[in-house]
Amino acid sequence: MTAYYILTRHIINSNIMNMKNTIKKSPVALAVLCFLIEEPMHPYRMQQLIKERGKDEVINVRHRTSIYQTIDRLHRDKAITIQEKKKNEGRPDLIVYEITDLGRNTAYSWIREMISTPAQEFLEFPAAVSFLALLTPEDVALLFKQRVSVLENTLARLEEDQFQKGASMSLPRLFLLEAEYQRAVLTAEIEWIQSIIADINAKRLKWSMEELREKEN
Predict the structure, then answer these.
(1) Which of 29, 49, 141, 155 could pair covalently with 200 via S-S, beta carbons 3.0-4.6 A apart?
(2) What ranges do the domains of the chain cover?
């Protein structure tokens, strides 16, 4: 292997890494790339798969335009390319996309990074918890009870969905792990909130703005 070949490969790999760094990472973008690793497909088929496979539980696709905007961006960044355009009677042509080498490398890189390295995500709930002092303990207990009710309903729905998919589609556990993770997180949050409610009710956790202001002064 000549020094020229080694240098050339190094330059090519460096260029690929630099191009990957310009691609905006997001769960929606990851889903698009992973679907196209399976096979070329059009955006409508991707939307179907997101729903069929329950990916909408872990990927925010509430806005229909989000997947199309993501596809346009990935195409612009050369992570995917147009394979063909199919005639669609009375409607715009269906554009079938396929993944590029850059897109494939990017998808695998994102998966490894997302799994191995926890991201610092700024969620609404812990942000609001950091300002609980502005409310009374009674208000917090009531609001927490309301949250627990919503979480329990979500947990029950996930368990039912997972049971139905596992029974009707005979899916191996590998394809149900994201739902399993969600259930574990929901269960842990419910248990934590219920412990805070119990502490408030037993007066083990109490506060008032007047006392807090006095301590600051």
Answers:
(1) 141
(2) 3-116, 124-216
Q: Are 60 and 28 in contact (CB under 8 A)?
A: yes
205: DSSP letter:
S
SS3 at position 184: helix
Provide the CATH topology of domain 3-116: Arc Repressor Mutant, subunit A (1.10.10)
Six token digits for residue 174: 């590998």
Contact 90/84 with Cβ under 8 angstroms? no
Q: Phi, psi (5° rounding) for residue 202?
A: -90, 5
Q: Report in angstroms the alpha-carbon separations of 90 from 42, 93, 94, 178.
A: 17, 9, 11, 39
Per-residue pLDDT tens digits for 120-170: 888 999 999 999 999 999 999 999 999 999 999 999 998 887 777 666 667
**101, two tokens:** 């080498």
Residue whose token pair is 């070949």: 5
pLDDT digits (tens, 9 = 90+) for 25-60: 999 999 999 999 999 999 989 999 998 888 888 888
Q: How many CA atoms lie within 13 A of 161 on its CB side?
A: 21
Report d(CA 111, CA 115) in Å as an integer.
6
Secondary structure (3-state) at 81: strand
What's the CA gap between 217 and 212, in Å, rounded? 9
Residues in the chain: 217
Question: CA 191, CA 197: separation in Å to the nearest integer?
Answer: 10
First to last CA, the chain: 73
